[in-house]
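Observation: inputs received (chain + magnesium ion).
Thought: call the complex predictor directly.
Action: predict_structure
Action Input:
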Amino acid sequence: MPIRRISSKWAKTEALLASAELRGLVPNTRPFERDTVRDMLGDYGMIYVKPVNGTFGNGVIRLGRSVDPDESYTLQAGEKQLSFPSFDEMYDALLKLKRPRPYLSQQGIELLKQDGRRFDFRVMVQVNPAGQWETTGIIGRLAHPRKIVTNYHAGGTPMPMETLMKTHLEKAGRTIRGFRTELSRLGVNVASALGKRFPGLKEIGIDIAVDTALKPWILEVNTLPDPYIFMRLPDRTVYRRIRKYAIAYGRFRRSARASAKSKRRSAGRN
Ligand SMILES: Nc1ncnc2c1ncn2[C@@H]1O[C@H](COP(=O)(O)OP(=O)(O)O)[C@@H](O)[C@H]1O
Ligand SMILES: [Mg+2]
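Observation:
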């Protein structure tokens, strides 16, 4: 079966919501509409609006509402930060900025920060050669100082999870190892839920936010995840295993030389 790519964030979010175990870890997500944006800003104080079929953090916008001392609104996109005295003015600016394609609104999660930069995690889960889902990589991504997305393509910096979480976990009396296990299990649960809905799936990359109470939230699931980010980890065995599993299910092509050689060999065998 060919490698599948599911681009709609909707389809993937629905698959997660079908799981009783995962439902509570998915930020409230709705189709983009004026009333929804206003209601969600009232409920959560901060939301993200993003393209249903987006990638690389492109087109992602963060909206905020504060009522103290006066009602005001903020909009952030790229390195732009704007403030408005009313919802209507903010919404007009939003419509001008937004690309003319389907968007969704999502409850905003206050990401943990390091030196004022937000960070979240990418968790890679693959079908292993024994045919079971296995979490094969976890890496942190530290956002560019003035940006609201952590994507590598938007200037984010990949970093070991330990570096980013050490002090946060220590303060909470928790261990790196325990946290790693929590993210790994979550990864496998997400993969099983998605695999049920989309048979043939072999690998996923989950964007996981951790809020200030250290609760993990599933921001999105990628079905054609970038394996190369894991080359940035000092532990080389992580990328090597990712590559090995991917070759086994046919995602990577072997080098042209290696495949010419093996073609010659199998031609000889015929
Ligand atoms: N609901 C949210 N709360 C907090 N941060 C978010 C939220 N949604 C997205 N982000 C930030 O924006 C980044 C890009 O959003 P994402 O949904 O992963 O879209 P893309 O497909 O473009 O990567 C995330 O990695 C995260 O840093
Ligand atoms: Mg993403």
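Thought: report the result.
Final Answer: Residues 262-270 have pLDDT under 50 and may be disordered. The first strand starts at residue 29 and ends at 31.
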